[in-house]
Amino acid sequence: MAKSRVAVVVGGGIGGLTAAVALHQRGWQVTVLERAATLAPVGAAISLAPNSLRALDVIGAGEEIRDLAAWQGDGGLRTPRGRWLSRTDADAVAARFGGPLVLLHRATLVATLAALLPPDTVRTGTPAALADPGDTDRPARVSVPGGELEAHLVVAADGIHSAVRRTLFPDHPGPVYSGFTTWRVVIPLPGVAFASHETWGRGRIWGSHPLKDGRVYAYAAALAPEGKHVPDERTELLRRYGDWHRPVPEILAAVRPEDVLRHDVHHLAEPLPALHRGRVALLGDAAHAMPPTLGQGGNQAIEDAVVLAYHCAGLPAYTAARLPRTTAVARKAVRTAHLVLATNPVAVAVRNTLIAALAAAGPALFLRSFDGIADWRPPHPPYAAVEARGTR
Length: 392
Description:
This protein is an alpha/beta fold. It has a domain at 6-75 and 97-174 and 269-343 and 367-390: FAD/NAD(P)-binding domain. It has helices at residues 14-25, 50-58, 62-68, 90-97, 106-114, 163-168, 233-241, 248-254, 285-288, 297-310, 315-340, 345-361, 363-367, 384-390, and strands at 6-10, 29-33, 45-48, 75-78, 84-88, 102-105, 122-123, 129-132, 140-144, 147-151, 153-156, 176-188, 197-200, 204-210, 215-223, 261-267, 276-277, 280-282. Strands 5-4-13-14-15-12-16 form a seven-stranded mixed beta sheet, with helices on both faces. Strands 7-2-1-11-18-17 form a six-stranded mixed beta sheet. It has a three-stranded antiparallel beta sheet with strand order 8-9-10. A hairpin with a 7-residue loop joins strand 8 and strand 9. Helix 2 (50-58) packs parallel to helix 10 (297-310). The longest helix is centred in the C-terminal third of the chain and has 26 residues, at 315-340. The two termini are 16 Å apart.
């Protein structure tokens, strides 16, 4: 019997778990090393666009995730006083991009992915460091407490502050502050019905979305100096958004200080020279961290994972397939952040007028900004999930 190919995935987030599942389905022996004590994600909800849902189809998880989703794309864009600038139609999204836009809790997605792996694949509470990236004539080596692991492939999915990336590309400047901070909450909000929406103000945004389990996911972003957090972030949210349209005040009234997660946003302003070196491949935020203004960070990590599994025998092909695309998406996310968080009153008025005009012209025109992103399709089938079922 042929010796199994061994892969080590550093990082047990969404991208790392997707890569682990895709590689496992292609016959790899996979170990996932996660520094945290559990796989419970630090975060709230994630929006999945048609591109990442098609990537999840590759590993046989797409339909389950669609069924679990809370939000199927209806909603729109508003001003702080409540005026609708545009309305999003789920049918128009599906018609243009071949599928829905959905929203679900990150923990749900993580649990779904982890369930597709054999028992004991994931080792939590296990910090890891790259000891040797390997080459064609030697395996890669990863240091863990008590020893080292050798692998034919190491997948670095260790986030925006990736230690593996620093080891591979020590001269790269790393992440920079994007100029704004974010808040996120997931709370129960019984008796308050509303349509999903994102609201754009001057240098501030707010989003509210109902989840399938009856809770509400809300997020906010605002221009702010880096690191200037306050002890009670709920008070800060009230100060910035308390007089915005309903249901924002009702959501804030139900929030406790301990419900609020706040993070300053960083991104890789300078693309990496490659997404691999030796036997190591980078994916997700470790490879191309971007602002969340297109909602594509997690989506691109899922894309990375299935493309990496497809090109695992030749990592230069992985870089060739992913680096141009992720660089383009990341740059568009930066440009979108500048638009969304504009502060000049004239620029804001022009922005809102153009958005309303585009929306009035029809959903196809308004959705055009996601052409080339949401319409992405994974490498040609047969998919890994299909191949795996065929060998049983």
